[in-house]
Amino acid sequence: MAKNDRVDLSHFTLRQIIEMEACTRCGECIETCPTFAEARNEEIHPLQKINRTKSFWKADHLGLLARLFGIKPATDEIWQDFSKGVYQCTLCGRCHVVCPVQIDTRPLWISLREMLVDRELHPETMNRLRDTVTTNFNISGDPNENRLGWMANMATPPEGLDRRENAEVVYFVGCVAAFYPMVYSVPQSFTTLMDRAGIDFTTMGGEESCCGFPLIIAGMGKDAHNLMRHNIDAVRATGAKRLVAACPSCYHTWTDEYPRLIGEPLGFEVVHETEFLADLIESGALNLKPVDKTVTYHDPCDLGRTSGIYKAPRRILEAIPGLTFVEMKDNREQALCCGGGGDVEMADAEVAKAVGRTRMLQAQETGADLIITACQQCKRTLLGAARANKIRMRTLDISELLMEAIE
């Protein structure tokens, strides 16, 4: 693979360079890394990634001073090993939680990927992802006008779901919910709940494009800008006052990446499904009947550590009469990743499956009947892990659980 002559430091902020220098090499991050725990590849864990990156840019930019300290230019083999480790990271952010100097690791890992893309040292699968998303406007490669295909087997789908003007709320469905039948029940449940609560809402239908998150975390954020601007314009054109997303990755992208891209407020509020549903329940818009089950809850990485939303899903679970809620050993800030993040499924599917298996075993230890989450991708990954490992536990999105509880 071709590569540029020197590491381009413009991929890193001044803060990130200082943070790498501030790393104390304590190693706390090593054993907290879920993919390193499964693969035991030294190039995966945070300490090694920081050490490698520092040696790369110092060898390129410090000249004689670098050589005096024994820092040598990296070989092609070292670069290749480094790239493999960087793309085996799920970007879960667990390493940030345990870091004694609070290095903001997740954005740093994305910067590493941008550097690797610049040097053409990224996995070929990421090029296919980029081409699929920028050509078809979704991650599956299906015709984008089929984004409302999940409505097909609903007995009574809500009216006005396809780009109705002047609705108060726009539901941003997301690629996974729109195109993967395994999780069609998530948009079906969520739209039914909103309809029962009397919410005036619509979707963008075939005008909705991928939020851009998969490209951003692949290190290809520049290729997502057109998609992002299109989505902003499309939502603004509806006149809606709020956008609600059930996908935590879409939610994070809308709240963090979009305003930064355009340099101004979006002009409408963005909320996550769990916040929206918790408010509906507490306002009395949804009446709940008892559900006699024991459940545990999986905190999605992009909802919890990335976006700081831990209370809303637990408010919902605590509001359901008769429900017994038990926490897993690792929960909230310490929650394990499901294995479905960071585009790892495309870079190393076996590592992703192993991480999912470990999380499902934690859920099984609680004795719960169900594992509840609030992310379509987490549902896909955990459901796949349960089937592959013969773990008899249903996996539901929190909206699906509420469907069992509404009168």
Explain what you see.
The chain is α/β, with parallel strands linked by helices. It folds into three domains: 9-122, Orthogonal Bundle (Fumarate Reductase Iron-sulfur Protein, Chain B, domain 2); 134-279, Glutathione S-transferase Yfyf (Class Pi), Chain A, domain 2 (Up-down Bundle), CATH 1.20.1050; 287-405, Rossmann fold. It has helices at 14-22, 28-32, 34-39, 46-61, 64-68, 76-86, 94-98, 105-118, 124-136, 175-179, 185-196, 213-217, 225-238, 248-262, 273-282, 311-319, 344-347, 349-365, 376-388, 398-405, and strands spanning 169-172, 201-202, 242-245, 269-272, 294-297, 324-325, 370-373, 394-397. α16 links the parallel β5 (294-297) and β6. α15 packs parallel to α16.
Please provide the count of β strands: 8
Radius of gyration over C-alpha positions, nearest whole angstrom: 22 Å
Choose one word for the global shape. Answer: globular
With strands numbered from the N-terminus, the spatial order across the biggest sheet is 2-1-3-4
List SSEs in N-to-C order.
HHHHHHHHHEHHEHHEHEHEHEHHEHEH
Distance between termini? 59 Å
The biggest sheet amounts to: 4 strands, parallel
Q: CATH fold name of the largest domain, please?
A: Glutathione S-transferase Yfyf (Class Pi), Chain A, domain 2
Number of helices: 20
CATH classification, class level of the largest domain: Mainly Alpha
Work out the strand percent.
5-15%
Roughly what percent helix?
Answer: 40-55%
CATH architecture of the largest domain: Up-down Bundle
- Provide the domain count: 3
* Class computed from helices, strands and strand pairing: alpha/beta
Mean pLDDT: 92
**Which residue ranges are poorly predicted, with pLDDT under 50 across at least 5 consecutive positions?**
none
